[in-house]
C-alpha cells in the first residue's frame, strides 16, 4: 500500500578480529534481504576492506554512498559480526545526514569458538556502538534479543517490524492532510492545533466545504468523469436500494474530492460529513471516504484531522487500511468487550457484507433520503491494533496511545458499520482515555502493530506514547509461522 523504500547497511569491523566474520556476515545479510525483497544500499566489497566500516575513511565512503541514495533510504541496519568500530558507525550516520531510524544487530558467540581466531565479542561491541550513537544524538532501535543471528526467526520479525517503523516515520514527517469544511459545531472533541502538527512535519490544507459542494453541483450526470466515478462506486459495493439520483450525486462529489486531493498532493482527508453535506447537497460522503481509505488515502469523519493522522500512521505500520470508529457501547456485562461503531465509512476490508445504504440516526434530523451513501456492514473476527494520536494544546505536545486486542464474532444486532472488540484491561484503557482528554474517536487496524507504532511515534517522532499491551492470545489463523515470515514480506 505504501512504498517500501531501501535500507542502508553498515557492517561494522575492528582490525584485531577475524576479517572472515565480516565476509560471512555480508553474504548472509545480502541473502536474507534478497529473500525478504528488501532493497539494500551498502558498500561494495572492494570499496573498503570486505565492504565493512572501520576507519574514518570508510565512514566517509559509506556516508557518501548513503547521501547519493538519500531519497530512497528510509532506515539503516547496523550489522556487528564482531566487536565493530563504534566511531566508524556513528561517524557514518553523522556524515550521511539521513535522520532515519537505525536498527543495531550483533552476532552471538559460540562457546566453542572463543579463541583469538574465532571470537566475535559483538555482545560487548553492541553496547559500545549504542553508547556512541547516544553521544552523537542519533536515535536507534534495538533487537528483541541483545545478540542474534540474522537467520533467527526473531530477528526476521524484528527486521520486518523495523521496516514498519521506517515507513511510519518517513510518512508522518512529510504528511499532508486535507481539512475539508469546518469542524461541526457539536464536536469540540476533535479540535486540534495546526501549529503543533506543522512543527512535526505534518501540513494541513484547508478548504471551505462550499467550494467542494459548489464545484460538484456544476457537474452533470453526462460528464465523463462523473460516469467513470459512478461505475467505480457500482463496482465497489452493492448499491442496495440506493436510487440512481443519489449515486450520481455521490459520483459528482467523488470527482471533486479526488481533484482536490491531486491538486494539493494530499495523503489523507478529514471531511465535514455532519450535517452540512446532507442538508446542502443531499447525500452522505461515506462511500467516497471508504473507497479512499481502501486505496491507501485514509479519510476521517467530522474534520477529525488527528484521527485521520492516526489512520495514516496505522496504515503505514501494517500496509493495510485503517478505520476511524467510535468507542461506542459496552457489550452487555463483559468488562473486556465493547462495541465499535460509525454510521459508516469504513474501508471495505472490514466489511465483507458491505452495502451502500442510509444513516438512520442522522436521518432523524436531516431526512433519511438525504443520507444515501452511508455504508452498512459488520466486521467479523480479525486481529486488532487500536490507537489515537492527538495534539495536547495546553502542553504543546503530540501524544498518543496504542494497543492490541481482537475483533470477535459475538452477536451484535444494530445498523451501520459495527464491530465487537475484545481488549484486555479495557476498563483501565477507558480510564486512561478519559483522564488524559483523548477523543471519543479511535482508529482500528486489522494487524498486530502496536509495538511498531510505539517505537516510531515515541522514539523517532518524539511524541508521548502510552502502550496498552495485551496478554498473549492463543495461537490462531492470524499468526504467521516462522517459515512464513521469510516469504510473506
TrEMBL record:
Q: Name one GO cellular component term.
A: cytoplasm
What are the alphabetically sorted keywords of the record?
Carbohydrate metabolism, Isomerase
Read off the Pfam families from this record: Fucose_iso_C
GO MF term (any one): L-fucose isomerase activity
Q: Where is the L-fucose isomerase C-terminal domain?
A: 340-466
Keyword check for Cell inner membrane, yes or no: no
Protein's UniProt keywords contain Lipid biosynthesis: no
InterPro entries (alphabetical): Fuc_isomerase_C, Fucose_isomerase_N/cen_sf
GO terms in the biological process aspect are: fucose metabolic process
Entries under PANTHER family matching the protein: FUCOSE ISOMERASE, L-FUCOSE ISOMERASE C-TERMINAL DOMAIN-CONTAINING PROTEIN
Record protein name field = Fucose isomerase
Which organism does this sequence originate in? Answer: Dyadobacter luteus
Species lineage, top-down? Bacteria, Pseudomonadati, Bacteroidota, Cytophagia, Cytophagales
Amino acid at each position: 500500500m505504501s512504498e517500501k523504500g531501501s535500507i542502508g547497511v553498515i557492517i561494522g569491523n575492528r582490525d584485531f578480529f577475524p576479517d572472515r566474520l565480516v565476509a560471512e556476515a555480508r553474504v548472509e545479510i545480502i541473502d536474507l534481504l534478497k529473500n525478504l525483497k528488501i532493497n539494500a544500499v551498502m558498500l561494495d566489497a572492494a570499496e573498503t576492506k570486505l565492504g565493512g566500516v572501520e576507519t574514518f575513511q570508510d565512514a566517509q565512503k559509506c556516508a557518501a554512498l548513503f547521501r547519493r541514495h538519500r531519497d530512497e533510504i528510509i532506515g539503516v541496519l547496523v550489522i556487528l559480526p564482531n566487536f565493530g568500530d563504534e566511531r566508524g558507525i556513528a561517524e557514518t550516520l553523522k556524515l550521511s545526514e539521513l535522520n532515519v531510524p537505525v536498527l543495531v544487530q550483533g552476532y552471538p558467540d559460540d562457546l566453542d569458538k572463543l579463541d583469538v581466531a574465532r571470537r566475535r565479542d559483538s555482545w560487548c561491541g553492541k553496547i559500545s556502538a549504542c553508547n556512541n550513537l547516544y553521544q552523537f544524538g542519533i536515535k536507534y532501535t534495538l533487537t528483541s534479543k541483545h545478540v542474534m543471528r540474522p537467520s533467527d526467526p526473531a530477528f526476521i520479525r524484528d527486521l520486518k517490524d523495523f521496516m514498519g517503523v521506517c515507513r511510519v516515520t518517513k510518512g508522518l514527517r512529510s504528511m499532508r492532510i486535507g481539512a475539508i469544511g469546518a469542524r461541526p459545531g457539536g464536536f469540540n472533541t476533535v479540535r486540534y492545533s495546526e501549529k503543533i502538527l506543522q512543527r512535526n512535519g505534518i501540513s494541513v490544507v484547508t478548504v471551505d466545504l462550499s467550494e467542494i459542494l459548489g464545484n460538484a453541483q456544476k457537474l452533470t450526470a453526462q460528464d465523463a468523469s462523473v460516469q467513470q466515478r459512478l461505475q467505480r462506486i457500482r463496482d465497489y459495493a452493492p448499491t442496495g436500494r440506493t436510487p440512481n439520483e443519489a449515486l450520481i450525486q455521490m459520483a459528482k462529489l467523488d470527482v471533486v474530492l479526488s481533484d482536490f486531493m491531486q491538486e494539493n498532493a494530499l495523503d489523507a482527508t478529514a471531511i465535514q460529513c455532519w450535517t452540512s453535506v446532507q442538508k446542502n447537497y443531499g447525500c452522505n460522503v461515506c462511500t467516497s471516504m471508504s473507497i479512499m481509505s481502501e486505496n491507501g488515502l485514509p479519510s476521517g469523519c467530522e474534520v477529525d484531522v488527528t484521527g485521520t493522522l492516526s489512520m495514516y500512521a496505522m496504515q503505514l505500520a501494517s500496509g493495510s487500511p485503517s478505520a476511524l470508529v467510535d468507542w461506542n457501547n459496552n457489550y452487555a456485562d463483559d468488562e473486556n468487550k465493547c462495541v465499535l461503531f460509525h454510521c459508516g465509512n469504513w474501508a471495505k476490508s472490514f466489511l465483507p457484507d458491505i452495502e451502500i445504504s442510509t444513516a438512520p440516526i442522522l436521518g432523524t434530523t436531516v431526512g433519511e433520503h438525504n443520507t444515501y451513501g452511508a455504508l452498512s456492514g459488520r466486521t467479523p473476527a480479525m486481529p486488532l491494533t487500536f490507537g489515537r494520536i492527538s495534539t495536547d494544546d495546553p502542553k504543546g505536545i503530540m501524544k498518543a496511545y496504542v494497543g492490541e486486542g481482537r475483533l470477535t464474532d459475538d452477536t451484535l444486532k444494530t445498523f451501520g458499520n459495527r464491530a465487537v472488540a475484545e481488549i484486555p484491561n479495557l476498563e483501565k484503557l477507558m480510564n486512561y482515555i478519559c483522564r488524559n482528554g483523548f477523543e471519543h474517536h479511535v482508529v482500528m487496524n486489522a494487524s498486530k502493530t502496536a509495538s511498531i507504532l510505539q517505537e516510531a511515534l515515541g522514539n523517532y517522532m518524539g511524541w508521548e506514547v502510552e502502550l496498552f499491551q495485551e496478554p498473549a492470545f492463543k495461537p490462531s489463523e492470524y499468526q504467521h509461522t516462522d517459515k512464513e515470515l521469510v516469504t510473506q514480506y
